[in-house]
Design goal:
Chain lengths: 187, 813
């Protein structure tokens, strides 16, 4: 699908300045339309109040229908829903929708892997760090950073060293103590 | 991979949303645990998550500098990767932890160049978020290395961060272009995309560099589809800016990218070139993926705006899309079909639109009324009638106005009146708008008249009055009237009108009331008043505070010698000083223009405390054919009390074009000595004279400024019967602004449609001026200015009489 993206690209009236900044916002809402996660990359909606109003608006317009894409408030919105969550990727009306879809799918698929296919609210909340890190890997400041979900999952892979202090070996404790001393000396 | 959710750490105890009851203060309290040693990394990571969540929800402002104490302490425990990653994220969110930046920077730099690949990318990004331009120099070396790093995540991160840094440190980032260039040849599609993007942004103001970039990549080919998208946009932008010819290599590049080999948006594309592209789009229309369908329809829509014939091949597919479950797609399909379809289909389409008009969002409602011209008048009618029904329910006045405007433009041959009731929304404005459409559009006129008749019975006073007025004007069906009363507002002053009307009613006369006899307002009037209906039905105009003109009018009317002069046409806006300000006598002159005469009003002040002047007059010696008729003296001018004397002059009759004249002035009076302390004057005095500066009368005194809102309409209305044109060279003037300013001042006419503002960097300009010449004749001047070495000016003047035109041209020359 990404390959077709550039085919349609050439057919657009691209009056807009060509730019890497393609994504305006990424949103995840629950099935009441409340915000679970929102990252705005530009000043389209500067205040929290405006953001929430926008989110309400798009939720009302999209949660009933199943289609993936809409044009609202002068912005292109691609969206996807799963059980009790709604994912949105927002771009300007001139943006190539297929690129935005790529972002959406990447986000969705990465989360799907991280949550073991359990893409629903409870699981997401339990793994907020993963969500934050995943979004950070996919879009940085409005620029698409990565579109391959595998890559994203790999980079987010917070690995098994989840060892509480009490279970560390003595040498590890000594090591961390040494580091602390070093830093406190540097200060 | 799921993190175990430790029940001990949970604050709100088992709610469905563990973050739901988070409180900012509680979390900040918790953050003190960051200061503990040894640090519990999991707990800290968890707290950081909560902090980030709060920021995300907008409950915690990222801007508070010390909102989270001790984040930097977390860096002491560098072992735990989750914690570290969360730290990076927090740093990015709260990028103004000012004092801690240095410490954080050093550890981030270490991470950036460290061995752990998974940290390097995020470290780079975090670092670049908090760094400023001075810091940037320090880490420049690392950035360059990162850009060309083999690990794609590192390279991408570095490139994207460089892009963000362009905004504040353009010069520094510019130096990394070579590295970015290298990165373009990377295998990783994202790296290529980012590198290309960065290069473009750095070079985008240099068109030559951009072209070179494009041609280079044309030859080598690009792997990344994102990069292709980018390049296509860049190339088409270039083409647009160059007004590209078909042969440009850029065009070839774009053609080569696409199997469909054509670009829609480029200027001058013919339908044939579009055909292959359109066929590809046709395929997309039947795609199962909604996004593809949407993209296809949107593109087809844009194509149809310029080349409807090219899209007809897709009509069948488009019709299928009309019933698509996605409303946006369906509406776009319909609007496209409306542009390209045949009669029968349009009828069907209109029915379908009305069925779900209420559901679609507002942008589409705006798009659909913008239907350029289905050829068939019948379908147009049905379409418009649907629009009218739509307006009835429409709550958006802006939308309704636009639709009204559209209706006005399209001008159907409707026989039955349109069932429109938008008037209830914005009554009087709508009435004016309706009248404007009626005035401009003859076909609409019958229906407008019907509507207006209905308005006459409206509840609102103002609506009724306006409707009556417009009705009577429109029914006369004279274009001139329409232009005069509807399109361009009345220019008379309201109190003057009131007075004139009063006078008229007091002295019943056979003649109809002459609007021209009412003095013009110096500023445009926004409101209209009934004028052509019989006086008895006229409303009482509002009591506006008397303007200067009214004051003069009254003063002059009080002087018996000036009774037969007729109405005051114009008074000069500012008095002219005929003496220096420090002299014994201070004289200032105001010029009043009447239809056949001019009255010079001299305001005199005697500043000598030992003299009293009596019988003061100002004698004028004209150079041209002006004839001095009489003097009205100021009786007495004691010390420091201003008095007024008048001189009446007749305008030249034999040579009406000689409107400019210079008068040499001399003040004649009787001086009586006076005791400064007692104020008593002698009985006897002596005659004396005092020479004043010369007084100029120019064409500006004969013309009153008038604002015409719609210059073109007025231009046409006046007609070219008395049109004259001449070209002049202004050899002393070097800039257009200066020329414009001079002309406006010299002629004393009002610049219309903001034509007095000369845009920068242009060497041609058209200046539109409007005024009324003495006697009530409209005069319009259109002046085309061209700047080469000096300014050349082509002046075209139109008026309802020959005289003003001649005068204007004579005086400019």
């Amino acid at each position: 699908m990404v390959a077709r993206a550039f085919r349609t690209e050439g057919m657009f009236i691209s009056l807009q300045e060509p730019s890497l900044y393609t994504v305006k916002a990424i949103l995840i809402l629950d099935n009441d339309g409340d915000r679970l996660f929102a990252k705005y990359y530009d000043d389209t909606y500067p205040s929290v109040k405006e953001q929430k109003a926008f989110e309400k608006n798009i939720f009302n317009k999209t949660h009933r229908t199943d289609s993936e894409i809409a044009l609202l408030e002068g912005l292109t919105v691609v969206y996807k829903s799963s059980i009790d969550l709604y994912f949105y990727v927002i771009g300007s009306s001139y943006e190539n929708e297929l690129m935005l879809m790529a972002v959406l799918n990447c986000l969705f698929d990465s989360l799907s892997q991280m949550l073991r296919k359990n893409v629903e609210k409870r699981a997401l909340l339990e793994n907020m760090e993963g969500l934050f890190l995943a979004v950070d890997e996919i879009v940085d400041g409005g620029v698409i950073l990565e579109s391959d979900p595998q890559q994203v999952v790999h980079r987010v892979a917070l690995r098994g060293e989840d060892v509480p202090l009490t279970e560390q070996t003595v040498s590890q404790v000594l090591q961390s103590a040494k580091e602390q001393i070093k830093w406190s000396l540097l200060r | 991979m799921l993190k175990k959710f430790d029940k001990k750490d949970e604050e709100s105890g088992g709610g469905s949303n563990p973050f739901q009851h988070l409180e900012k203060s509680a979390v900040l309290q918790e953050a003190r645990v960051f200061n503990e040693t040894p640090i519990n990394p999991r707990k800290c990571a968890h707290i950081l998550t909560k902090i980030l969540y709060l920021i995300n929800q907008g409950l915690l402002s990222a801007r508070l500098p010390h909102a989270v104490p001790g984040v930097r302490e977390l860096f002491t425990s560098l072992a735990q990767p989750t914690l570290r990653r969360m730290c990076y994220l927090t740093i990015k969110e709260m990028s103004c932890i000012a004092e801690d930046v240095i410490i954080v920077t050093s550890s981030l730099t270490k991470d950036m160049t460290g061995k752990e690949d998974s940290y390097r990318g995020p470290a780079v990004r975090a670092l670049c978020q908090i760094t400023d331009s001075t810091m940037l120099q320090a880490i420049e070396r690392y950035m360059k290395q990162a850009i060309v790093d083999k690990v794609p995540s590192v390279s991408s991160s570095a490139l994207v961060s460089s892009l963000h840094l362009l905004k504040c440190s353009f010069d520094v980032v510019k130096r990394w272009v070579n590295e970015a260039q290298e990165a373009v040849s990377s295998d990783n599609i994202m790296v290529q995309y980012h590198a290309l993007g960065l290069l473009y942004h750095v070079r985008k103001n240099d068109r030559l560099a951009v072209s070179k970039m494009i041609s280079k990549f044309t030859r080598h080919g690009l792997k990344s589809p994102f990069a292709y998208c980018m390049m296509i946009r860049v190339a088409s932008r270039q083409l647009e800016e160059e007004d590209g010819s078909r042969d440009s290599p850029l065009f070839d590049f774009i053609e080569s990218c696409l199997p469909a080999s054509a670009i829609v948006n480029l200027p001058g594309c013919s339908a044939k070139e579009l055909a292959p592209a359109v066929s590809v789009l046709q395929l997309f229309c039947s795609s199962p993926k909604a996004a593809l369908r949407y993209a296809a329809v949107r593109t087809l829509n844009k194509v149809a705006m310029k080349h409807p014939s090219a899209v007809t091949a897709c009509n069948l597919d488009l019709e299928n899309l009309v019933t698509d479950s996605n409303r946006s797609i369906a509406t776009l399909a319909i609007t496209t079909l409306l542009k390209t379809g045949s009669e029968g289909s349009i009828d069907r389409l209109m029915k379908q639109i009305s069925s779900f008009m209420s559901e679609i969002s507002d942008e589409f409602k705006v798009h659909s009324p913008r239907l350029p011209r289905p050829r068939d008048s019948e379908s147009k009618e049905t379409g418009l009638s649907h629009l009218c029904e739509f307006i009835e329910d429409c709550e958006f006045t802006v939308l309704a106005t636009r639709i009204l405007h559209l209706l006005g433009q399209e001008g159907p041959q409707d026989q039955q009146p349109l069932q429109v009731h938008p008037l209830h929304l914005q009554p009087s404005g709508a009435v004016s708008a309706l009248a404007k459409f009626g005035a401009q559009n003859e076909e609409m006129l019958p229906s407008i008249l019907v509507l207006l008749k209905r308005c006459v019975m409206d509840d609102d006073n103002e609506v009724r009055d306006r409707a009556t007025f417009y009705l009577s004007v429109l029914e006369q069906k004279q274009k001139a009237l329409n232009a005069g009363y509807i399109l361009n507002g009345l220019t008379v002053s309201i109190p003057g009108l009131e007075r004139a009307l009063q006078q008229y009613t007091l002295e019943p006369s056979e003649k109809p009331f002459d609007l021209k006899s009412v003095p013009l307002a110096t500023t445009p009037m926004a409101e209209q008043r009934t004028e052509s209906t019989p006086i008895t039905a006229a409303k009482q105009p509002e009591k506006v505070a008397a303007t200067r003109q009214e004051i003069f009018q009254e003063q002059l009317a009080a002087v018996p010698e000036f009774q037969g002069l007729g109405p005051l046409f114009k008074s000069s806006p500012e008095p002219v000083a005929l003496t220096e300000s420090e002299t014994e006598y201070v004289i200032r002159c105001t010029k009043h223009t009447f239809p056949e005469h001019m009255v010079f009003q001299f305001d005199c002040t005697n500043t000598l405390n030992d003299q009293t002047l009596e019988n003061v007059t100002v004698q004028l010696e004209p150079t041209e054919a002006y004839e001095v008729l009489c003097y009205v003296p100021a009786r007495s001018l004691p010390y420091n009390q201003p008095g007024t004397c008048y001189t009446l002059v007749a305008l030249p009759k034999e040579d009406p074009t000689a409107v400019g004249c210079t008068f040499s002035c001399m003040m004649k009076f009787t001086v009586k000595d006076c005791d400064p302390t007692t104020g008593e004057t002698d009985d006897e005095g002596y005659e004396d004279e005092y020479v004043l500066e010369d007084l100029e009368v120019t064409i500006a005194d004969h013309i009153q400024k008038v604002m015409k809102l719609n210059f073109e309409a007025a231009w046409d209305e006046v007609g070219d019967e008395f049109e004259k044109e001449e070209t002049f060279t202004l050899s002393t003037i070097k800039t257009l602004e200066e020329a414009v300013g001079n002309i406006v001042k010299f002629l004393g006419m009002h610049p219309c449609e903001r034509s007095d503002k000369v845009p920068d960097n242009k060497n041609t300009h058209t200046l539109l001026l409007a005024g009324v010449f003495r006697g009530g004749h409209d005069i319009l001047v259109r002046s085309r200015l061209l700047l080469l070495d000096t300014v050349t000016m082509q002046v075209t003047a139109r008026s309802s009489e020959e005289l003003p035109v001649d005068i204007v041209l004579a005086s400019v020359g």
